[in-house]
Design goal:
Elements: E1 8-16, E2 20-25, E3 28-33, E4 49-54, E5 64-71, E6 74-77, H1 83-92, E7 104-111, E8 116-123, E9 130-137, E10 139-140, E11 145-148, H2 154-168, E12 172-179, E13 186-189, H3 195-206, E14 210-218, E15 223-228
Parallel strand pairs: 9-12, 11-13, 12-14
Antiparallel strand pairs: 1-2, 1-4, 2-3, 4-5, 5-6, 7-8, 8-9, 10-11, 14-15
Length: 234
């Protein structure tokens, strides 16, 4: 996925109220929208280089949107509005080989017993419809290990429960982690942050839910899913 226009580079001053960030640009300080509801653990240190997209919409309160951050020399994509499109693009390009062979892709489909909406439903060409729940991963521990979630995620646990129900009903459920950084070699549940999520993920694996993780190549020009990395639940 290529960015539609050249991103604006700046330095992060602070992220606050979850959805706002103050950024020092070459010509002054601006407030940008922060499209990420997580804690952005390890990604929102003051002074980090960041890249922002711009909108010309007259109805937007904040013209800029925070897209990328550099952490220890590594570009990280923080916009949680992008992973669904990144995954859909990768499926269309046959990068995610496990999800090829379907005729149609539907997005944001209501399903389940807990009022959920699944990110992608793949249908046609294969016997079972495939329900894909996408999660954005930005946090990393030492030694190349990515962590999810970076904050307590009751919603994440709910989605795993819904996927387990789909498995019992005969559908094909998939939990897919979209890792928007290229310096990690595996994804692990962040048990110290959200123990319930980690346990629910292990239950989902035991129940037969497919769990995949794909790592992205991130630059100021584009973000593109490139290769699969393992999900490890010790």
């Amino acid at each position: 996925m290529k960015f539609k226009a050249k991103l604006v580079e700046g330095r992060l001053i602070r992220r606050y109220k979850r959805f706002l960030a103050d950024v020092q640009l070459a010509d002054g300080v601006i407030t940008a929208a922060c499209p990420n509801t997580g804690s952005l653990m390890g990604c929102c240190e003051a002074g980090n280089r960041v890249w922002l997209s711009q909108s010309d919409s007259a109805t937007r309160k904040y013209r800029h949107t925070w897209e990328l951050v550099e952490v220890d020399g590594v570009m990280v994509g923080i916009n949680t509005g992008l992973p669904n499109a990144l995954v859909a693009e990768a499926i269309g390009d046959k990068v995610i080989t496990e999800l090829t062979g379907y005729a149609t892709v539907r997005r944001e489909v209501a399903y389940g017993e807990e009022g959920s909406r699944v990110d992608l439903v793949l249908e046609g060409g294969r016997r079972k419809p495939c329900y894909v729940e996408v999660k954005n991963v930005t946090a990393a521990a030492s030694a190349g290990v990515a962590l999810f979630p970076d904050a307590v995620s009751e919603r994440g646990s709910r989605h795993l429960r819904e996927l387990m129900r789909l498995k019992r009903l005969g559908a094909r459920p998939v939990q897919l982690y979209c890792v928007q950084r290229g310096d990690v070699n595996e994804v692990r549940p962040a048990d110290a942050i959200d123990y319930e999520y980690g346990q629910t993920l292990r239950e989902a694996l035991a129940a037969g839910v497919e769990v995949l993780a794909y790592r992205a190549r991130v630059s100021s020009r584009e973000i593109r899913l490139a290769d699969r990395i393992p999900v490890v639940c010790p």
